[in-house]
Amino acid sequence: xxxxxxxxxxxxxxxxxxxxxxxxxxxxxxxxxxxxxxxxxxxxxxxxxxxxxxxxxxxxxxxxxxxxxxxxxxxxxxxxxxxxxxxxxxxxxxxxxxxxxxxxxxxxxxxxxxxxxxxxxxxxxxxxxxxxxxxxxxxxxxxxxxxxxxxxxxxxxxxxxxxxxxxxxxxxxxxxxxxxxxxxxxxxxxxxxxxxxx
Length: 198
What we know:
With 198 residues, this protein is of the alpha+beta class. It is 35% helix and 23% strand. The protein has one domain (9-197).
């Protein structure tokens, strides 16, 4: 699907560059991902290929690979259920899912908790409230997807942001193609998981 790029992409790039001393920082921690069985292999969990094909809040389809993580197990589970209402699935009878923990250490993370909404002219919450799926269906890239693409283009390895699904929850999106040689991104218990799911 070819989407019309968001008109603020260039200004977002410039804004992130101007605020880079504040927004960019190292980050490390244990993260979590809850995925359906079709995306729960050790390769799929860290590839980000699903986002490149289908898109997500922080990257439109057809652009870059993105891996979606949360900083707590509960947030990861809530995020994984986010697609139920859109696709008419019964949230009370969810399909089998795998909850995996992943170690992450990056040198260049974009911290949206430090984002200056005044100079940007919009807030992070406005991006979380966007109906990016409907915008994509109409052939347009969302503002949040444009920000993600801008961050990728500037060499950021990851973005830290609030969860749209759980109050006080935090998510991390990782750009595998931007990970530096000094960074670390690995599934905890990968060998055991691989023996079960491949």
